[in-house]
Amino acid sequence: MSSTQKTDYLSLNQWVTTDIPTRTDFNYDNEMIDTAINNHCSDDNIHVAQADREKWDSPYFIGFYYGDGSAIRTVDTSCPFVPSFGFVFAGGMPPSVTDFNVKNKKNYFGFLSKRTSTAGISLSGTELRIPINGNPVNSSEYMNFNVAGITYCFVLFR
To answer: Of the candidates 134, 127, 130, 137, which has an alpha carbon nearest to the alpha carbon of residue 73?
Structure first.
């Protein structure tokens, strides 16, 4: 015999003293609870998937490389994800230095993305492509992303 009263939300049995519970009553209640919990836990609109949680837990990656003065260079960032945006800067240097005596500008800061970047530096998967050191972007502007002895920092974002 089913209970005289039911709960408001799931209609589970609420027995009164005169009710005689049966196994089917308990099975019905267990099935209702199991279905409700399954529906709740399976709802991706209210629960976060593990992949999303990982993105939120580590939205950026910071790394360093040391300038070696080579003509062209590819830096493996060891980034655990394929970044979509980032920037590179030289430690201890201003973003750019202008020498008015020889009329040139040396840049030590640059942005990079999958589609476009600051002249002379690019992003390919998780690798940084460093420009040929010493060649000007235009007649008097130089991108200095691999000067020997300088430590460079990069910050990459998902």
So the answer is: 130
Mapped onto helix, strand or coil, the DSSP state of residue 116 is: coil
| Interstrand relation of 104-107 and 141-143 (parallel, antiparallel or unpaired) | parallel
Distance between CA atoms of residues 134 and 58, nearest Å: 35
Q: In 51-125, where do the E strands start and end?
A: 60-66, 73-76, 85-90, 96-99, 104-107, 109-113, 122-124
Helix (H) or strand (E) holding 39: helix 23-41
Query: In the numeric block, which tokens belong to residue 84?
Result: 């979509």
Q: What are phi and psi of 44, to 5 degrees?
A: -70, -15
How far apart CA 110 and CA 107 sit, in angstroms, is 8
Asked if residue 73 lies in contact with residue 148, where contact means CB atoms within 8 angstroms, the answer is no
Whole-angstrom distance, CA of residue 52 vs CA of residue 46: 13
Residue 46 CA, chain-centre distance (Å), reads 21
At 144, is the secondary structure helix, strand, or coil? coil
Is the pTM higher than 0.90?
Answer: no
Q: Which two tokens stand for residue 11?
A: 């209609």
pLDDT tens readout for residues 50-86: 777 776 777 899 999 999 888 788 899 999 989 999 9
